[in-house]
Write a structure and sequence with these properties.
The complex is a heterodimer of chains A (296) and B (364).
Chain A (H helix, E strand, L loop, with lengths): L1 H42 L3 E2 L4 E2 L5 H8 L1 H35 L5 H8 L7 H12 L4 H8 L14 H25 L3 H9 L4 H29 L3 H6 L7 H11 L3 H29 L6
Antiparallel strand pairs in A: 1-2
Chain B lengths: L5 E12 L2 E12 L3 E5 L6 H9 L6 E6 L2 E2 L10 E4 L11 H5 L10 H14 L15 H13 L5 E5 L7 H18 L2 E6 L2 H7 L2 E6 L2 E6 L1 H6 L4 H6 L4 E11 L2 E6 L3 E5 L12 E6 L5 E3 L9 E11 L3 E8 L6 E6 L12 E5 L6 E3 L1
Parallel strand pairs in B: 3-8, 3-9, 6-7, 7-8
Antiparallel strand pairs in B: 1-2, 1-4, 4-5, 9-10, 11-12, 11-14, 12-13, 14-20, 15-19, 16-17, 16-19, 17-18
Helix pairs in contact in B: 3-4
Chain lengths: 296, 364
C-alpha cells in the first residue's frame, strides 16, 4: 500500500515534470498550429458571400471541391507528383545512404553527412530558382546541348511542366530521405550480414533478406518525411511547374488570395489534409508490418 | 585419435592489418570430428584465425584448407562451415522459426519438410515450442540456442563458435558447456571454439591451441597442456602456477638435475623439461594442488619443507593457502580439498608441506 502510494506520487511528479518540460512547445503548437487549423476547419463549413463570409453552415464547399473537374484533376496531379517525387527521392537516396553507412570509413562518416546537408545552406527559394536557370529556355542544359551540337534549338519540354517539378523537389528533399535511411542502416549489426552469408546466401540475397527489411523503418520514415510536405508545396510548382504543373497548394492560394473565397479554399485544404492523413496511415501500417521489434 | 582425417589445415597463415601483423605464421591441423579450441588473451589473433575459416577474413599469405580444398577459392556463403557469432547475430526481424530455417531457403523444401527440419533443430537445442516467438523476446541463453540450431540445421562439416558463452552468467555458462560437449558427440562434426576462458577450453576441448601475439605457442590435449605447459607464458595463462628460480646443474637425455631455491636438488624427467635456452638460470613451476600440507600425525613424505601460512582463501570445496616456505624467497600457493575432519588452518600457523619432483615443470 505504502509503496504503491509512493509510486503513484512519483509517477504524478514525473508527469508534472514532463508537462512542464513540453509546455513551451505545447503552447506554441496549440496557439500557432491547432487553433489556426480549427479555424480553417470551421470556415470550410461556412458560406461564401464574395468579400465576406456568411455564417451559415453548408456542405457546398466540399461538394464543390470534390465534384468540380478542375479541383479533382489538380488534387490527383498533386498526389501523383508527390508520389513520384517520393519514389524518385527515396530510390536515389537509398544508395547514397547505403554507401555512406557501409563503404565510408567510420572516421569520415560525419564529414559525408555534413556534405550531404550543404544544399540546406542556401534558401529553398534560391535552389528552386537555380533549377529554373538550369532547365530554362536559355538555361545550362539547353545552352550546353546547343553548344555541343546535340540539339539545334532549345528543348522546351524540360521546363514548366510536371517533370521539372519532380526534378526540383527530388533534389530539394534528398537530404531528408538520406538521413533516416542512413540512421536505419547504421543500426544494423554488421554480424547479421556475415550471418546471412554464413548461412549460404549471396551478398545480393543477404541484402534482400536482411539489410532491406531492417532498413525498412528508415525507408518508411523517409517516405513520410518527403511525401507529406511535398503534397503541400506551392513554391516549386509556381516557379517551374508552368500552367500544367499547378498543384493543390497553388489552388488554395488562388482561392484565398486571388478569388477571396475563404470557405472553398479551406474546404480544399481540409480535403488535401485528409488525403495526406490517409496515405500516411497506409505508410505507417506498412511500417508496422516491417517492424516486428519491441513496441509494435 | 588414430588416423582421423584432417578437416582444417593452416599452412603458414599470415595476416596483416596495415602494419599490424595479426597472424604470424600459423601451422596447425584440426582433425575431423574433434572439439578444437583456440585459446588466448584478447588481441592474440584467435578470432581472426576463426574468421579465416568462415571466409570473413582474407589472409595475406599462406593457405587455409577446408576438407582438403583451398578455402581462398570458396566464398564465405559456399563454405561447408557455419558459425555461432559472439553476439549470436539473431535476425531481429524474424521469428525463432524463420531464423532457424534461414539457411534452408536454398534447399527449396516443401512447407512440411521445412517445418519438420526446423522442429528437429529446435528440439536438438531444447527449444521445442519456441518457434513462433519473436527474436527479441528471447533470453541470452535462448538466443544462443537459436544460433546453434540455425547453424547445425545446415549440417556443416565444421561448426565455428566465436566466444559463444561469454555473454552468459556463470551457472548458464557451465550448463551450456556440458550441453555443447554432448551436442558435439551427438552430431559428430568438427567444432572449432574461440575462447579466452582457459577453464572453458579445458572442460570442452579434445585439443587446445594456445595463442599469443599471432602465434600458436602450444597445441596439446587439455591434460598435457595443464600438466606439461611448454613455456612459462602458457603455464601462467592456464590455471595457477607457482614459479621458483632454479639452477640447472646437468642436462642429459634421461632428465635434468636442478637445484631449486629453498627446495633443494632434484631430478626432472625429460618430458617435464621441454628444451629451450642454454643458460643455467631457469625456473621451475608447479601447480597448487601438487603441494600437500601434512597435518599432525601424518607420516613424513619423501620431500617436505616447513613453512608459515601467510594467507587463507576458503572456497567451500577447496581452501587455498599462500605459504612462505623456509628458505624460499616468495610465498607459494597451494590448495587443499576440504574433506571431512580436515581443519582449515589459520594465518601464521606453521605447516609441513610435502612436494614431489614429478610435479615440477622446468622452464628455460
Amino acid at each position: 500500500m505504502t509503496s504503491g502510494g509512493v509510486l503513484r506520487r512519483t509517477g504524478r511528479s514525473e508527469a508534472a515534470t514532463g508537462l512542464a518540460m513540453i509546455s513551451p512547445t505545447a503552447t506554441y503548437a496549440i496557439l500557432l498550429l491547432a487553433a489556426p487549423l480549427a479555424l480553417i476547419f470551421i470556415v470550410s463549413f461556412l458560406t461564401d458571400g464574395y468579400l465576406e463570409i456568411i455564417r451559415t453552415f453548408t456542405f457546398a464547399n466540399y461538394i464543390e471541391a470534390w465534384t468540380n473537374e478542375l479541383y479533382r484533376v489538380v488534387m490527383v496531379r498533386s498526389l501523383l507528383v508527390a508520389l513520384s517525387v517520393t519514389a524518385v527521392t527515396v530510390l536515389l537516396a537509398f544508395p547514397v545512404a547505403y554507401f555512406v553507412s557501409f563503404h565510408v570509413d567510420p572516421s569520415r562518416k560525419s564529414l559525408w553527412l555534413f556534405l550531404i546537408t550543404i544544399p540546406f545552406w542556401t534558401s529553398y527559394l534560391i535552389r528552386v530558382f537555380l533549377w529554373k536557370v538550369i532547365l530554362g529556355y536559355n538555361g545550362v542544359v539547353n545552352s550546353s546541348l546547343l553548344g555541343l551540337g546535340i540539339i539545334s534549338e532549345p528543348l522546351q519540354w524540360i521546363n514548366y511542366n510536371v517533370g521539372a517539378v519532380v526534378v526540383t523537389l527530388a533534389h530539394a528533399y534528398a537530404p531528408f530521405a538520406i538521413l533516416p535511411i542512413f540512421v536505419a542502416l547504421e543500426k544494423i549489426d554488421r554480424s547479421l550480414l556475415e550471418a546471412g552469408q554464413d548461412l549460404g546466401e549471396s551478398r545480393v540475397m543477404t541484402f534482400l533478406r536482411v539489410t532491406l527489411p531492417l532498413a525498412m523503418p528508415g525507408v518508411v520514415a523517409a517516405v513520410l518525411i518527403v511525401f507529406i510536405p511535398i503534397i503541400g508545396d506551392f513554391v516549386t510548382p509556381q516557379l517551374v511547374g508552368g500552367p500544367e504543373g499547378r498543384m493543390v497548394a497553388n489552388l488554395i492560394q488562388l482561392q484565398y488570395l486571388k478569388l477571396d473565397n475563404y470557405p472553398l479554399g479551406s474546404a480544399i485544404a481540409v480535403s488535401a489534409m485528409a488525403i495526406v492523413t490517409l496515405v500516411s496511415l497506409l505508410f505507417l501500417y506498412l511500417n508496422r508490418r516491417y517492424l516486428r521489434g519491441p513496441g509494435s | 585419435m588414430t588416423a582421423k582425417p584432417t578437416m582444417i589445415e593452416f599452412r603458414d597463415v599470415q595476416k596483416y592489418y596495415g602494419d599490424y601483423h595479426a597472424l604470424r605464421g600459423i601451422n596447425a591441423s584440426i582433425r575431423a570430428g574433434e572439439f578444437f579450441s583456440l585459446l588466448g588473451p584478447s588481441g592474440c589473433g584467435k578470432t581472426t584465425l576463426l574468421r579465416t575459416i568462415a571466409g570473413f577474413e582474407d589472409i595475406s599469405a599462406g593457405a587455409v584448407l577446408i576438407d582438403g580444398k583451398d578455402a581462398a577459392l570458396i566464398p564465405a556463403n559456399k563454405r561447408p562451415t557455419n558459425m555461432v557469432f559472439q553476439s549470436y547475430a539473431i535476425f531481429p526481424h524474424l521469428t525463432v522459426e524463420e531464423n532457424v530455417g534461414f539457411g534452408l531457403r536454398r534447399a527449396r523444401l516443401d512447407k512440411a519438410e521445412m517445418g519438420r527440419r526446423v522442429g528437429d533443430a529446435l528440439a536438438m537445442v531444447g527449444l521445442t515450442g519456441f518457434g513462433k516467438r519473436a527474436a527479441h523476446a528471447l533470453s541470452g541463453g535462448q538466443r544462443q540456442r537459436v544460433a546453434l540450431a540455425r547453424a547445425l540445421i545446415l549440417k556443416p562439416k565444421v561448426l565455428l563458435l566465436d566466444e559463444p558463452l561469454s555473454a552468459l552468467d556463470k551457472k548458464m555458462r557451465e550448463q551450456m558447456q556440458v550441453e555443447l560437449i554432448k551436442l558435439q558427440r551427438q552430431v559428430g562434426i568438427t567444432f572449432v571454439l574461440v575462447t579466452h576462458d582457459q577453464e572453458e577450453a579445458l572442460v570442452m576441448s579434445d585439443r587446445i591451441a594456445v595463442m599469443f601475439e599471432g602465434r600458436i605457442v602450444q597445441l596439446d590435449d587439455p591434460v598435457t597442456l595443464y600438466r606439461r605447459p611448454k613455456t612459462r607464458q602458457v603455464a601462467d595463462f592456464i590455471g595457477t602456477m607457482n614459479f621458483l628460480p632454479a639452477t640447472l646443474l646437468s642436462d642429459t637425455t634421461d632428465g635434468c638435475e636442478v637445484e631449486v631455491a629453498g627446495l633443494g636438488r632434484c631430478r626432472i624427467a625429460p618430458d617435464q623439461a621441454p628444451p629451450g635456452g642454454n643458460g643455467q638460470d631457469t625456473t621451475v613451476g608447479f601447480r597448487p594442488e601438487t603441494l600437500t600440507i601434512l597435518f599432525d600425525g601424518q607420516a613424513a613424505a619423501a620431500r617436505e619443507t616447513p613453512g608459515t601460512v601467510e594467507e587463507v582463501v576458503y572456497y567451500g570445496d577447496m581452501t587455498y593457502y599462500d605459504v612462505k616456505l623456509d628458505g624460499v624467497a616468495s610465498a607459494v600457493r597451494l590448495s587443499m580439498r576440504n574433506v571431512p575432519g580436515r581443519p582449515v588452518l589459520d594465518i601464521g600457523t606453521r605447516a609441513r608441506v610435502a612436494w614431489s619432483p614429478d610435479a615440477l615443470v622446468l622452464f628455460r
